[in-house]
Design brief:
The structure is a homodimer. By secondary structure, chain A is an alpha+beta fold. Chain A has five helices and five strands; from the N terminus they run αααββαββαβ. A four-stranded antiparallel sheet of chain A has the order 3-4-2-5. In chain A, strand 3 and strand 4 (117-124) form a beta hairpin. In chain A, helix 2 (37-44) packs across helix 3. The longest helix of chain A is centred in the N-terminal third of the chain and has 14 residues, at 48-61. Residues 1-15 and 166-179 of chain A have low confidence and may be disordered. Chains A and B meet through helix 1, strand 1, strand 2, helix 4 and strand 3 of A and helix 1, strand 1, strand 2, helix 4 and strand 3 of B. Strand 1 (64-71) of chain A pairs antiparallel with strand 1 of chain B. Chain A binds a DNA duplex through residues 36-38, 46-50, 52-54.
Chain lengths: 179, 179
Amino acid sequence: MDEETDGIPQNRPAARDVDATDRKILGVLVDDATISYAELGDRVGLSPPAAHERVKRLRRSGAIRNTAAIIDPKAVRKPLLAFVHIDTKGWGKTPELMAISEHPEVEEIHSVAGDTCMLIKVRTEDTRALEGLLSRLYETPGVTSTRSYVVLSTYLERPVQPGITTEWPTPRHMAKPLY
Amino acid sequence: MDEETDGIPQNRPAARDVDATDRKILGVLVDDATISYAELGDRVGLSPPAAHERVKRLRRSGAIRNTAAIIDPKAVRKPLLAFVHIDTKGWGKTPELMAISEHPEVEEIHSVAGDTCMLIKVRTEDTRALEGLLSRLYETPGVTSTRSYVVLSTYLERPVQPGITTEWPTPRHMAKPLY
DNA sequence: ATTGATGCAGAATTCAATTCGGCCATTATC
DNA sequence: GATAATGGCCGAATTGAATTCTGCATCAAT
């Protein structure tokens, strides 16, 4: 695939225009990426090679980051999901981020706006393992406190939805998005 | 694939023993599910048909829930990520969950232990869209208040890690996990 | 009007997924 | 303890899809 300067993902070059057909393709592939290009072409109204070309382009442009197996956490004995607020003095320092991302239990690391804290998502085998992980996190330099939210049950978990509208219904009088 | 009684996922039948080889396979497929069975077999020390059999079994048992394209949120114009605490009177009622999951911006819905609240993950085009979504959520029956955490930047986002140890290093004197 | 580029379809080729038969090891059964 | 039965693997063979190639139509720019 592409090269990363570091462990932390860089911004992609451009991410060209994603038109209505591309969105349809994404919508299908998010649901099931094991289908043939013939099947994909049928569903979006293209010939197999044309569908193939589109998908190759979406991959190259980075719109499709990856094609991955989605695993049942229970099957690999990681049934316990928790979100953890980590208060830090001075957020976003790379060494601390690296230290946190070392733990394989950590699935996501986000910086929260307007607050000197990180919100991370962790998955462990049980509460004892979570406790151990939390104490190890607390030992990371810069971490001043943690507050964890254990998930009792999950009702919905789905990937990013590409949307199926032709173009985005954002009124023209609106300012550009944050990013 | 399998049948769901409802929009809400059911518990799988069994999820058989996942041995060390299975974990290796999962580890590879989480990284990249587009490789050939020959390649997969090479990496885990199996012939192509054997690797194929394993994967089929992992799919049937539900350990591999899905094989999906992972989309770059920016490419589909959903760069704004936020977590929202939703306080509810009486959590987990199905109609409310359904109402919340109707919104395509909602990616995850979790019930938090020890609190009458839900933690949901949403992705929108910009802050205005987020504001609109929040007000629509607030109109859902049972919702008493919301508190949102807008993500400034994301440093890590990865799928469930299957782990690569032969068996789990949980000491035998420990009690069984919660779930 | 002409040229160039882009995206598509259809046919042809290459390569991988899938099936099949037989072997070996482990486990259950008598 | 001997034997059947099961499960998992390999190697070869077959089927089927991915990929390449060629030509055509459309649109944009010159």
